[in-house]
């Protein structure tokens, strides 16, 4: 008998814990996938920004009969070879400025800029060190155009993006994007005057990142990057960031590919240009850029000043940590706020491609009801089939699994499911939860109580929330006890009673709900409810929250990170705190809103689009994600020739030794992941010396054995066998 998947929404008012441990600023409102900075306009009719890029036309598209998009056959206007970056103006507002950079001019070396800056001893704010200087930090760059603020998409365009997220790139929606993109110089409504740039960006992303998008030829990809340059010059923040990320992975400029007389930038110059742009965007609180700068600092790509001024002074890992950690902390803090705002955290199973090679039918999981199989987010067809299966059961109240089906549908609509093309709908989720609750499902009763307590999808009604929490608690539902504890702990709609709240949290913990440890930790941290302040006991509970959730609770990880970084109840340790903040900052579900992601990469891989799968994984790798690094390396190992043939990727010229270019790149990526203590990556670098990869590693059994042993100590079973 097929059984049903279920999970708990499992997060209620948990922002109280984050703010009780460390003071945090309220997060800025989150935009739709195209992130923009809002300009404080004094005019009711803002001037369209199209004049800024009149010399750069957008390479045009046409829609084929099957809905695919093709670049028309005229040559795209070559870009100037310049790039845009971010600076503050005299009023403190962020602006986009353009500059020319000679393809052989190294005077703008990022290393020299960073090494000349001073870092405060306590490293309270890494942005002071990594920021673009506000008083002319780029005076050596020749400015060739006026600066402008980041563009802001209209409400109509944001609504169009929502439809694309829900329905996919249908011919109708692609046609609308193309129509908007063509209004660069003809927009009449000031409110939508800048939408052309966002449409250009969206179409470029479709060509670069959507699986099996046609056409699959060099020019289509070159045009997409060219058009991203146009959008970036106009002031689209997302386009600026993605272009910088493409620079990091060594993708050539369009004009370098179209004009052989142009001397290309060296890899060092390209990375320096990327780091300049990313540090400016990071200072403007761009998530993707901040993660890239944080990893660049952690990996040593972006140098930090050493405490010892000697030329040969070793890299001080503590100094590096103190600079990188505030960046990861900021991203982690923002992600925790997003989780709370969205009502919960959706776990995402990230697949290692090497595991699929060993066990193509594995990688599944079993839930409370024993329903096994691949995560439906990984397989669009399976996700749609499961959705219809749940709906079929939901239409038959006599089915014994009716309550569980209704509960599962509530979860799907509460969180949304991209693979099944289901958008977030808290109102519909509430209806499903209520019907499942009335049918006696304890988890649905607890979840519906959570919605009532927070006013999500229904009018806020705390007395009714108590009714549903108590119904579930009588069935020993752990999350219900947790919900009751939160209400009484915060006094949110009920008289505050911390003593009673702590009793509920103890009940929840006894039933296996480990996140309640976070509230007990807060009580011991602050002395709530007459509990004596005990920092060691507080730390113990925060640690238990992490251990009890197998490190899957972002809130628990964040709290523990703060304790380690501030030295509360435990010796202060930046090196211990950083991986905790980093894990929250790189949460794959929260990063799925970026143009590239692990989730979209796997979708491309499943559909046989190894080129775009590689591009996704390779870009995620530059954020310091081990899964991205290992999976990009895996694709180079097993599909390297089919990836290498694409000239626009620039792989053919990426290494001096032309033998085994894919394996050269794969080894570099495995080495990056190995530096992050990834056991598979350490084993693979050992394999390179064990059975030598020609032109990459010499035969060295001792080095191979050392790496196998280290990987085995970290839990890699295959490495243990190799030993």
Sum up the structure in keywords.
723 residues; single chain; 6 strands; disordered N terminus; two-stranded antiparallel sheet; mainly alpha; four-stranded antiparallel sheet
Q: Regarding quaternary structure, how should these chains be classified?
A: single chain
* Alpha-beta content class: mainly alpha
Shape: globular
Rg calculated over all Cα atoms: 26 Å
Largest sheet: 4 strands, antiparallel
Q: How much β-strand is present in the residues?
A: under 5%
How many helix segments?
31
Extended strand count: 6
Helix content: 40-55%
Element layout with pairings:
Layout: H1 15-21, E1 61-63, E2 69-71, E3 83-88, E4 94-100, H2 110-115, H3 126-130, E5 142-143, E6 148-149, H4 155-167, H5 171-181, H6 195-209, H7 218-234, H8 237-248, H9 254-258, H10 267-283, H11 287-299, H12 317-342, H13 353-358, H14 380-394, H15 402-415, H16 426-438, H17 442-454, H18 462-474, H19 478-490, H20 498-510, H21 516-526, H22 535-548, H23 554-566, H24 574-585, H25 598-606, H26 610-621, H27 626-644, H28 661-675, H29 679-690, H30 701-713, H31 717-722
Antiparallel strand pairs: 1-2, 3-4, 4-5, 4-6
Helix pairs in contact: 1-23, 5-6, 6-7, 7-8, 8-10, 10-11, 11-12, 12-24, 14-15, 15-16, 16-17, 17-18, 17-19, 18-19, 19-20, 20-21, 21-22, 22-23, 23-24, 25-26, 26-27, 27-28, 28-29, 29-30
């Amino acid at each position: 008998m097929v059984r049903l998947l279920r999970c708990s929404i499992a997060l209620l008012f948990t922002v109280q814990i984050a703010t009780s441990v460390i003071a945090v600023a309220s997060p800025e409102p989150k935009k739709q996938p195209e992130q923009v900075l809002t300009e404080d306009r004094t005019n009711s009719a803002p001037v369209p920004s199209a004049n800024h890029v009149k010399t750069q036309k957008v390479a045009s598209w046409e829609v084929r009969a099957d809905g695919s998009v093709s670049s028309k056959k005229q040559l795209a206007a070559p870009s100037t070879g310049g790039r845009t970056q971010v600076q503050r103006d005299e009023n403190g507002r962020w602006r986009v400025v353009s500059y020319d950079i000679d393809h052989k001019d190294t005077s703008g070396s990022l290393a020299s800029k960073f090494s000349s800056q001073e870092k405060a001893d306590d490293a309270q704010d890494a942005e002071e060190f990594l920021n673009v200087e506000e008083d002319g930090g780029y005076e050596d760059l020749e400015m060739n155009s006026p600066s402008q603020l980041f563009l802001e998409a209209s409400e109509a365009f944001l609504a169009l993006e929502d439809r694309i997220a829900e329905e996919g790139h249908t011919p109708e929606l692609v046609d609308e994007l193309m129509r908007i993109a063509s209004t660069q110089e003809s927009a009449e409504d000031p409110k939508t005057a800048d939408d052309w740039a966002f449409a250009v960006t969206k179409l470029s992303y479709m060509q670069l990142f959507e699986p099996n998008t046609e056409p699959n030829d060099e020019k289509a990809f070159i045009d997409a990057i060219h058009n991203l340059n146009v959008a970036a010059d106009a002031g689209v923040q997302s386009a600026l960031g993605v272009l910088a990320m493409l620079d990091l992975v060594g993708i050539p400029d369009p004009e370098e590919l179209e004009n052989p007389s142009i001397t290309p930038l060296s890899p060092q110059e390209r990375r320096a240009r990327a780091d300049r742009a990313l540090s400016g965007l990071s200072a403007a609180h761009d998530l993707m850029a901040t993660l890239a700068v944080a990893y660049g600092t952690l990996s040593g790509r972006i140098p930090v000043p050493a405490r010892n001024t000697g030329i040969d002074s070793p890299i001080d890992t503590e100094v590096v940590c103190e600079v990188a950690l505030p960046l990861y902390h900021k991203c982690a803090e923002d992600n925790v706020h997003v989780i709370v705002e969205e009502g919960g955290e959706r776990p995402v199973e990230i697949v290692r491609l090497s595991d699929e090679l060993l066990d193509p039918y594995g990688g599944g999981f079993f839930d409370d009801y024993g329903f096994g199989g691949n995560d439906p987010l990984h397989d669009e067809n399976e996700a749609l089939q499961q959705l219809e299966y749940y709906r079929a059961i939901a239409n038959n109240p006599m089915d014994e699994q009716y309550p569980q089906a209704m509960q599962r549908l509530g979860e799907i609509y509460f969180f949304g499911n991209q693979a099944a093309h289901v958008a977030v709908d808290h109102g519909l989720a509430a209806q499903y939860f209520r019907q499942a609750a009335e049918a006696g499902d304890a988890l649905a009763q607890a979840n519906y109580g959570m919605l009532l307590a927070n006013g999500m999808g229904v009018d806020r009604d705390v007395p009714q929330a108590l009714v549903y929490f108590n119904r579930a608690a009588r069935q020993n539902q752990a999350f219900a006890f947790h919900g009751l504890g939160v209400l009484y702990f915060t006094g949110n709609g009920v008289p505050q009673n911390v003593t009673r709240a702590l009793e509920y949290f103890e009940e929840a913990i006894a039933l296996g709900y480990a996140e309640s440890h976070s509230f007990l930790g807060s009580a011991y941290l602050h002395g709530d409810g007459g509990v004596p302040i005990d920092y060691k006991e507080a730390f113990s509970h925060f640690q238990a929250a992490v251990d009890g959730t197998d490190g899957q609770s972002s809130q628990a990880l964040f709290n523990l990170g703060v304790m380690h970084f501030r030295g509360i109840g435990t010796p202060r340790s930046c090196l211990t705190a950083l991986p905790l903040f980093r894990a929250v900052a790189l949460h794959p579900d929260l990063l799925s809103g970026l143009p590239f992601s692990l989730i979209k990469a796997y979708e491309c891989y499943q559909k046989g689009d190894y080129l775009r799968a590689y591009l996704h994984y390779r870009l995620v790798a530059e954020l310091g994600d081990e899964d991205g690094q290992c999976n990009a390396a895996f694709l180079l190992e097993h599909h390297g020739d089919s990836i290498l043939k694409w000239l626009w990727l620039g792989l053919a010229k990426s290494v001096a030794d032309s033998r085994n270019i894919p394996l050269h790149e794969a080894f570099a990526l495995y080495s990056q992941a190995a530096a992050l203590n990834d056991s598979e990556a350490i084993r693979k670098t050992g394999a390179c010396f064990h059975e030598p990869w020609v032109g990459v590693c010499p035969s060295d059994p001792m080095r191979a054995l050392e790496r196998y042993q280290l990987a085995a100590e970290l839990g890699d079973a295959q490495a243990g066998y190799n030993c």
